[in-house]
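Comment thread on ticket #2218

A.B. wrote:
> Attaching the input chain for the structure job we discussed in standup.
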Amino acid sequence: MNTRTDSSTDFTPVDQDLYAAAFRLLDPDPAPEPAAPAALTAPAQAPLIAVQPVHLTGPVEKTLTDALAFLDTHGWTRYSLINTEGARCSIGALRAAAGARNAAYCDAGNLLLDEARRQHGKKWQTIPSWNDSHSGAQVRSVWEAAIRRAHHMNI
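C.D. wrote:
> Ran it. Output below, let me know if you need it in another format.
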């Protein structure tokens, strides 16, 4: 085979930019180059991001929160479940928030009564007796503490 290496040929030198542009037109999306074998590449490190755990509101916390919102909207009363203006006592608000005497209603009531006993003494046997013997501010304080406890207990 004869190969000529002298520069006296009739060939025109190739413009490399024009050559690359022509191939881009023919193959605009070339296949990506194969990745190096896993042993030769360092593993990708995901950035460490501090993620706060997601808190899901439990049924007891929701019932207590909804009941307190009901009291804030419709008013609080003593000595009756519902007064003539639509205000409710604590047990009436719990019933309105729960919609039925279900497990969340019972657990929310037990937690509320337990918190009332913590703040106002062990003598209280029922929510209505405690509710009727305290001021609105005292009752609200117990509600807020019970909601915090339900939140921390994740119930």
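A.B. wrote:
> Thanks. Noting for the ticket: The first helix runs from residue 16 to 26.
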